[in-house]
C-alpha cells in the first residue's frame, strides 16, 4: 500500500499544478457588494474553453460579464467581456464559457451589475496544458480509408476530364488523350501526396511545440539531516525548463513563502509547516514532533505572476522526533479520525456534512466550533483566515488546501488583481499586514478595503466550498486557531 501510494504520488506529480487531481476552481467571496460563489472548470488543453458557473444568491442581478485577463497582458490587452446567461429555471445561477488562447498565468474577471451598481472580482485560472487529445483507432482507420477513397476519386475525375472532356459523346479517347490523362493523373497524385507530407510535417511540428509547452511542475527534493540533536528538513527546488518560468520569484501567501504539509502514509500523523528560505531555491525547517514512518510531502508556493504550484515528494523519517515548534503558525502531531465531533482541549469541532456528496458538483463543507457550555467558539485569525482545511483522497490521487474563500491562493488573486485597471474586490478577509501592503501599494481602492474590513469578524461556523473531483473516500483535516493554539480535527467524507 505504501509503495502504491508513493508510486502514484510520483506519477501525479508530473501532471499536477496547484491542485493535485482536483482541477475545478472554486471561489466564494464578493464582487463589489454582491456575494458570489464561482465554480470554474479550466481546460486541460490550450487553446481551450473554461466553463464558468456563478451562484449570485438572492441579490437582484441585471447582468454578469466574464473576461479573460492574462498577467502578461493585463486588462488593457484583454478581449472585451461577454455576457453570460441564467441557467434555465434557476434565477440565481448563471453559466458561460470563454476561450483561453495562450499559455501563462491567467484569470477570469467577473463583473456583476445590479441595483447596488457594478462590482467586480477576479479568479486565478492558469492557462496550462496537462493533456493531449487522441483519436480512437477505429475512427483513425475510417478516416484513412475515406481519405484514400477521396484522393483516388479526385485523381480519377481529373484523368477522365483530361481524357474525355474534349471528344464527342460516345467516341473513344485517342491514344494521345490517354497518355495526357495518365501524365496529369500522376502529377495530380504526386502533388496531393506531397501536400499531405507537407501538412503532416507541419502538424508534427505543431504537436511537438504543444508537447514542449505542456506544464512541467517544479520538482522537490526533501531530505532530513540530524544536527545538534535536531532533525532538520532540507527542501531543494529544481526547475525543469518550462516556458519562461523562474523558480526564484516566489511571493508570500498568508505571509509565508512556502506552506508544507507532511502526511504519513498511514494517515495518522499530520504537519503543516512553514520552511524558511536559505536562498531562493533552498528551504529549511526544524522538524517538530513526528513519528517514524513514510510521509507524503506537499509544498505550496506562488510565483510573482500569480501562478501557484504544489510540489511533491516522499520522505522517510527514521526515528521518532520530539522537538519544539519553532514557528507559532506550525503544527505537527497525531490527529485522530473523528466521526462527527473532534474535541481538542475545550474546543469542539463538529462536522456538518451533507448525507450525499456527488462528485463533480459544488458542495459546502461546514464545521461548527463551540467551547465551554456549547457557546460559539471565539476563533482567532490563523494566517489571515478563519480556518484552513486539507482534503486528500485515500489513495493520495487528490490533494488540496482549502480556505473559506475556496481553492484559490490569496497571493495569486493579489498578483492578478494588480493587472486590472479598475476597482476589483479580492478575498473577503485579510491579515492586517496584507491590508497595510495593499493600502500602501494602491492595488485595491479604499472602498474595497473598507468592505473587506467590515467582513473581518470570524464566525464560529467555518464553511469550505469545494468540488470533489471523483467518487471515493476522502480525508479532511481542519485547522483553526483558538486561545493562541492551532487545533485540528480529522474527518472522513465519501463522494459518490
Explain what you see.
With 496 residues, the protein is an alpha+beta fold. Helices cover 21% and strands 40% of the residues. The chain is built from 6 helices and 30 strands. The chain has helices spanning 2-13, 137-164, 175-213, 410-417, 432-441, 446-454, and strands spanning 25-31, 34-41, 48-55, 61-70, 82-83, 85-87, 90-100, 106-114, 117-124, 219-227, 230-238, 250-251, 259-264, 269-273, 276-279, 282-286, 293-303, 308-317, 331-334, 337-338, 341-344, 347-352, 362-371, 375-376, 379-380, 388-393, 399-402, 461-467, 472-482, 485-495. Strands 12, 13, 14, 17, 18 and 19 form a 6-stranded antiparallel beta sheet that branches. Strands 20, 25, 26, 27, 29 and 30 form a 6-stranded mixed beta sheet that branches. A hairpin with a 4-residue loop joins β13 and β14. α2 (137-164) packs antiparallel against α3 (175-213). The chain is elongated. The two termini are 23 Å apart.
Amino acid at each position: 500500500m505504501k509503495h502504491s501510494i508513493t508510486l502514484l504520488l510520483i506519477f501525479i506529480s508530473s501532471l499536477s499544478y496547484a491542485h493535485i487531481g482536483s482541477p475545478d476552481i472554486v471561489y466564494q467571496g464578493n464582487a463589489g457588494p454582491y456575494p458570489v460563489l464561482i465554480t470554474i472548470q479550466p481546460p486541460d488543453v490550450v487553446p481551450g474553453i473554461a466553463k464558468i458557473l456563478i451562484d449570485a444568491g438572492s441579490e437582484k442581478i441585471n447582468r454578469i460579464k466574464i473576461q479573460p485577463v492574462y498577467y502578461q497582458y493585463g486588462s488593457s490587452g484583454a478581449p472585451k467581456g461577454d455576457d453570460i446567461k441564467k441557467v434555465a429555471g434557476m434565477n440565481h445561477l448563471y453559466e458561460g464559457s470563454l476561450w483561453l488562447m495562450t499559455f501563462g498565468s491567467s484569470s477570469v474577471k467577473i463583473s456583476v451589475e445590479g441595483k447596488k451598481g457594478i462590482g467586480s472580482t477576479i479568479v486565478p485560472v492558469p492557462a496550462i496544458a496537462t493533456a493531449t487529445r487522441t483519436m480512437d483507432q477505429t475512427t483513425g482507420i475510417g478516416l484513412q480509408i475515406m481519405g484514400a477513397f477521396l484522393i483516388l476519386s479526385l485523381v480519377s475525375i481529373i484523368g477522365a476530364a483530361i481524357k474525355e472532356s474534349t471528344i464527342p459523346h460516345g467516341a473513344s479517347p485517342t491514344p494521345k488523350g490517354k497518355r495526357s490523362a495518365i501524365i496529369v493523373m500522376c502529377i495530380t497524385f504526386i502533388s496531393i501526396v506531397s501536400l499531405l507530407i507537407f501538412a503532416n510535417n507541419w502538424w508534427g511540428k505543431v504537436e511537438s511545440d504543444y508537447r514542449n509547452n505542456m506544464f512541467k511542475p517544479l520538482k522537490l527534493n526533501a531530505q532530513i539531516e540530524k544536527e545538534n540533536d535536531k532533525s532538520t528538513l532540507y527542501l531543494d527546488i529544481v526547475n525543469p525548463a518550462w516556458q519562461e518560468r523562474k523558480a526564484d520569484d516566489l511571493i508570500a501567501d498568508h505571509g509565508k513563502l512556502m506552506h508544507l504539509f507532511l502526511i504519513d502514509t498511514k494517515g495518522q500523523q499530520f504537519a503543516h509547516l512553514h520552511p524558511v528560505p536559505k536562498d531562493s531555491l533552498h528551504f529549511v525547517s526544524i522538524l517538530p514532533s513526528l513519528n517514524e514512518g513514510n510521509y507524503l510531502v506537499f509544498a505550496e508556493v506562488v510565483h510573482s505572476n500569480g501562478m501557484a504550484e504544489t510540489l511533491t515528494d516522499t520522505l522517510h523519517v527514521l526515528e521518532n522526533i520530539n522537538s519544539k515548534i519553532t514557528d507559532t503558525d506550525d503544527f505537527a502531531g497525531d490527529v485522530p479520525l473523528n466521526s462527527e465531533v473532534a474535541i481538542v482541549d475545550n474546543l469542539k469541532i463538529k462536522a456538518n456534512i451533507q448525507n450525499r456528496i456527488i462528485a463533480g458538483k459544488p458542495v459546502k463543507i461546514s464545521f461548527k466550533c463551540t467551547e465551554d457550555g456549547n457557546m460559539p467558539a471565539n476563533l482567532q485569525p490563523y494566517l489571515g483566515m478563519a480556518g484552513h482545511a486539507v482534503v486528500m483522497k485515500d489513495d493520495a490521487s487528490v490533494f488540496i488546501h482549502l480556505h473559506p474563500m475556496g481553492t484559490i491562493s490569496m497571493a495569486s488573486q493579489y498578483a492578478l488583481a494588480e493587472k486590472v485597471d479598475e476597482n476589483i474586490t479580492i478575498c473577503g478577509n485579510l491579515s492586517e499586514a496584507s491590508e497595510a501592503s495593499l493600502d500602501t501599494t494602491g492595488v485595491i481602492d479604499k472602498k474595497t478595503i473598507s468592505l473587506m474590513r467590515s467582513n473581518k469578524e470570524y464566525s464560529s461556523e467555518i464553511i469550505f466550498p469545494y468540488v470533489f473531483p471523483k467518487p471515493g473516500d476522502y480525508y479532511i483535516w481542519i485547522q483553526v486557531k483558538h486561545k493562541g493554539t492551532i487545533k485540528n480535527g480529522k474527518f472522513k467524507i465519501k463522494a459518490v
